[in-house]
Design goal:
Blueprint lengths: L5 E2 L4 E3 L7 H16 L5 H8 L6 E5 L9 E6 L4 E6 L5 H7 L5 E4 L2 E4 L17 E4 L2 E4 H13 L1 H9 L5 E7 L1 H13 L7 E5 L5 E2 H6 L4 E5 L10 H12 L3 H30 L1
Parallel strand pairs: 2-13, 5-10, 10-11, 11-13
Antiparallel strand pairs: 1-12, 3-4, 4-5, 6-7, 8-9
Helix pairs in contact: 1-2, 4-6
């Protein structure tokens, strides 16, 4: 059961309504290419797409494991940025095999085999099927567990790489499922890196509104018009179901039927009048 409706983090940019400077739009396109690179099959293909050298990539793993999508850590000396990019769900195969039942979870930084959560993670997709406590609010259970994996296994190297480069800014980025994990990870790391930023393309509904508001200055979400993924959640489905149940379908169908009959009768009368005029 959801403890509360989840929403997307944190700033909504509808692409056709953006009112910002050209430099900001160019920056979003730059991030889009980096996030797109995370869907390549290997680091070499990613570097070719993103126009990176081997020295620019600090770490990468393009395998997909349970509770851990593919990712890479890189730097950009011209922009003075260190960033972690997290891949979203690439195929149904990733959902079916990689995000299954009885998977390891992370509580307080310790890995365990958790079956008491019935189950700990059932199916991780971009639809929030369950939520759990996180940072005083609520978060998508599966994405929160994935973010904790990155916090335990990757964040140390990411923060060290940032600390070794004074004047650089630290970013986490992703698309869809990866965007949700990136947003949650940025929230988790904000106390260690106060100015950390997340750039999220089409993030799913993954946090409660209080977390969304608290970390709004740290997360930018880019959503294309009426894209269903960022707007759909179990809470949204329940709201839609309640609205549909509140509709008087019989009355609507009766009115529609009466209008159709009246329109048909009007056409019949017009045809009969034209026949009489000819005769």
């Amino acid at each position: 059961m959801l403890c509360g409706p989840l929403t997307w983090p944190c700033m909504l940019w509808r692409c056709q309504l953006v009112r910002t400077c050209t430099a900001s739009l160019q920056d979003l396109l730059w991030w889009h290419r980096l996030v797109d690179g995370s869907y390549e099959r290997c680091e070499a293909d990613m570097r070719a797409l993103c126009d990176m050298t081997a020295d620019d990539v600090l770490a990468s793993d393009f395998r997909v494991e349970i509770l851990r999508p593919a990712y890479y850590i890189a730097k950009d000396d011209k922009q003075k940025r260190v960033f972690l990019v997290i891949r979203g769900t690439r195929s149904f195969h990733d959902v079916r095999r990689r995000w299954g039942l009885g998977v390891p979870c992370y509580h307080g930084g310790h890995s365990c085999r958790c079956h008491s959560h019935a189950p700990c993670v059932q199916v991780l997709t971009d639809v929030a099927a369950a939520s759990e406590d996180m940072l005083g609010g609520q978060a998508h259970r599966g994405m929160a567990h994935a973010a904790r994996w990155f916090q335990e296994h990757v964040a140390g190297d990411l923060i060290d790489a940032h600390a070794k480069r004074p004047g650089y800014k630290l970013f986490v980025a992703g698309h869809s499922l990866g965007a949700g994990i990136a947003a949650l990870l940025a929230m988790m790391l904000q106390h260690r890196v106060p100015d950390i930023q997340a750039v999220c393309f089409a993030p799913p509904a993954c946090v409660s509104s209080d977390l969304c508001e608290r970390y709004a200055s740290h997360i930018t979400s880019v959503i294309l018009d009426k894209d269903i993924v960022p707007r759909f959640s179990l809470a949204a489905a329940r709201k839609l179901s309640a609205e549909l149940r509140g509709v008087d379908w019989k009355a609507l169908l009766k009115d529609e039927f009466n209008r159709d009959v009246a329109a048909l009768q009007k056409r019949i009368d017009a045809y009969a009048s034209s026949v009489e005029a000819v005769s």
